[in-house]
Design a protein that fits this description.
The protein has 231 residues and is α/β, with parallel strands linked by helices. It has two domains: 138 residues, Response regulator (Rossmann fold, 3-Layer(aba) Sandwich); 69 residues, Arc Repressor Mutant, subunit A (Orthogonal Bundle), CATH 1.10.10. 47% of the residues lie in helices and 13% in strands. It contains ten helices and six strands; from the N terminus they run E-H-E-H-E-H-E-H-E-H-E-H-H-H-H-H. Helix 1 links the parallel strand 1 and strand 2. The longest helix is centred in the last third of the chain and has 15 residues.
């Protein structure tokens, strides 16, 4: 399957550079470009894209709001947003994920890592750089706030004990394979539990499930800086 990509960046040179890299891959096809947030939203709707490479700093409608509008559109439910920016700060990481982004990378990322990131989010996984992951955790622990679109724990969210356990492990950054190894289950079983947890919580992907895990207390930190689930 070919991954259809939209490049959203106000710098034409960067778009051209990204297009050259992405179009060299047999499974990735750049089908549209946008120089503003408004164009990104419009072309996400018209070009039937799978992944949007979204810059944050764009004139007019910025990348965060453009991400929010795309992920709020029911007709674009399958579109994944990979935020690529020079400004890898905690505020932007949190804003991007709250808006529904599936990944967040700095523009200095290695080309091969960028290609893998596109494939990763296209498959429904989340992708955060190490710096972004650290910032995300610290920010949410310091200033928790509701995640737009996610369901608040209560009668309407009935995660099983196993789903809660696996959601907590997703929140610590473990992959399905690592979760499977930790719990002595198959990777397929781990994936099934993750998918069920995402469905019940209203999370679009693993990135939002990570947010859910922190906001609901499934993952927390001790006063010594270690996670509560660390041994």
């Amino acid at each position: 399957m070919t991954i259809r990509v939209l490049l959203a960046d106000d710098q034409a040179l960067l778009r051209a550079t990204f297009r050259l890299l992405l179009d060299s891959e047999p499974d990735i096809d750049v089908v549209a470009e946008a120089a503003t947030g408004e164009e990104a939203v419009a072309k996400a709707r018209s070009a039937q894209v799978d992944v949007v490479l979204m810059d944050i700093r764009m004139p007019g409608l910025d990348g965060i709001e453009a991400t929010r509008r795309i992920t709020a559109d029911e007709n674009l439910a399958g579109v994944k947003i990979l935020v690529l920016t020079t400004f890898e700060t905690d505020e932007l990481v949190v804003a991007a994920l709250r808006a529904g982004a599936s990944g967040f990378l700095g523009k200095g990322v290695d080309p091969l890592a960028l290609l893998q990131a596109i494939r990763t989010v296209a498959e429904g996984e989340s992708l955060l750089s190490p710096a972004a992951t650290t910032a995300l955790i610290e920010r949410f622990l310091a200033q928790p706030a509701p995640l737009p679109g996610a369901v608040v724990p209560g009668p309407s969210v009935e995660l099983t004990a196993r789903e809660r356990e696996i959601t907590a492990l997703v929140g610590t950054g473990l992959s399905n394979a690592e979760i499977a190894e930790r719990l002595t289950i198959s990777a397929a079983t781990a994936k099934t539990h993750v998918n069920r947890a995402m469905m019940k919580t209203g999370a679009r992907d693993r990135a939002q499930l990570v947010v859910f895990a922190y906001e609901t207390g499934l993952v927390s930190r001790r006063t010594d800086g270690r996670r509560a689930d660390d041994s």
